[in-house]
Amino acid sequence: MTKAPLRIAVSGAAGQICYSLLFRIAAGDLFGADRPVALHLLDLPQAQNAVRGVVMELEDCAFPLLSDVAVTDDPNAAFRDVDAALLVGSRPRSKGMERRDLLSANAEIFKTQGAALDANAKREAKVLVVGNPANTNAFILAESAPNFPRDNIASMIRLDHNRAQGQLAAKAGVGVGEIEKLVVWGNHSPTMFADWTFATANGRPLNETISDEAWYRETLIPKVAQRGSAIIEARDASSAASAANAAIDHLRDWMLGSDGRWVSMGLSSIGAYGIPEGLYCGVPATCTAGSIERIEDLKIDEFQRRMIDRTVAELVEERDAVRALLA
Ligand SMILES: NC(=O)C1=CN([C@@H]2O[C@H](COP(=O)(O)OP(=O)(O)OC[C@H]3O[C@@H](n4cnc5c(N)ncnc54)[C@H](O)[C@@H]3O)[C@@H](O)[C@H]2O)C=CC1
Ligand SMILES: O=C([O-])CC(=O)C(=O)O
User: Which parts of the sequence belong to the Lactate/malate dehydrogenase N-terminal domain (predicted)?
Assistant: First the structure.
């Protein structure tokens, strides 16, 4: 029997990330080759024509799994009855900007969409915030949706996790799939902390395999943290296909399960690791079909403590900067 389609809202449908993301979802990369999907595409009124062009292209792909596409500029309509939402729609940064510089441009979007989510979405819908600054936008969304479960909102740090995984695999001379127990902590910003302390490749500690602490501290950590800027310098536009891929990885693992593998997710803190409650912070987790299990009992050394404290301090600053908007 054919399964019922999963309904997915995607905002920023006319933008560059969605030009990759929507086609991969429709091809079955998110929920597998036996699960139909229906898309609710959200974008601004002035982008509706461009979205219609994207819809024509989706039609022209004749994806067997794509059961329905709705287009709207109304977040209330977009979030009605969805099983998941990918909140991509917001301004990207350009050369010379940091992601936090987008806060004033993008914060209001997540306040409005939080209210719409609260009013319309199923309580079990899973919501991933991609638009930058993603952690603080997720915080604004959650604060603006007081009756929507906070744990069903996450911010995306998976791109950073994937970036670190790629760099570590190349350095260690192993396949990316062999790397486990990697964590990217904190804010999706230059203060993020790509942490190899617990990571293994084929069961062997990665820091023993690579055995180069200076490379880890002086090359890996800053390279992962600055990768978004390096891509903007090279492309004159921010990452798009890799961001779409990370969004798919994050949501697929969340909804279908991570099979025991650790993943990094921006989750609302419950106070573990000294992270203030309610901040959306990159932390390690595993997932089983729709639920997230935070990994809370890791022993943190002095270097990790310093790196986590630095990125958490920035999240606190961002949270305090948006208090007036939420009042
Ligand atoms: N968390 C992460 O790892 C990453 C986040 N990003 C962020 O994703 C966001 C989108 O990036 P791109 O697709 O490259 O940007 P883009 O400029 O190509 O597309 C953004 C789209 O969002 C739409 N939009 C703006 N306000 C909206 C609203 N209120 N409701 C619905 N749609 C709205 C715009 O009309 C546009 O179509 C940016 O904030 C970017 O910084 C990008 C890469 C990675
Ligand atoms: O750097 C940016 O502005 C886009 C982004 O978040 C990334 O590529 O990590």
Answer: 7-152
Is the CB of residue 196 less than 8 Å from the CB of residue 207? yes
What pLDDT score was predicted for residue 325?
Answer: 87
Helix (H, G, I), strand (E, B), or coil: what is residue 11? strand
- 193: CB partners within 8 A, 6+ apart: 184, 185, 186, 221, 304, 307, 308, 310, 311
Q: Which of 90, 229, 281 to mutate to test the pocket of ligand 1 (most atoms within 8 A of CB)?
A: 90
Question: Is there an atom of ligand 1 within 6 Å of 11 CB?
Answer: yes
**Residue appearing with tokens 């055995």:** 211
Whether the model clears a pTM of 0.95, i.e. scores above it, the answer is yes
* Integer-rounded Cα radius of gyration of the chain: 19
Write the burial class of residue 163 (CB in 10 Å: 0-12 exposed, 13-18 middle, 19+ buried): buried
Question: In angstroms, what CA-CA distances link 184 with 29, 246, 304?
Answer: 24, 13, 11
What are the pLDDT digits (tens) for 203-234? 999 999 999 999 999 999 999 999 999 999 99
Residue 92 CA: which ligand 2 atom is closest? 3
Question: What is the residue with the minimal CA distance to atom 9 of ligand 2?
Answer: 228
- If you average pLDDT over residues 316-324, what whole number do you get? 94
DSSP secondary structure, 280-295, as one string: EEEEEEEEETTEEEE-
Q: Is residue 156 within 6 Å of ligand 1 at its C-beta?
A: yes
Question: Residue 274: what residue type?
Answer: G
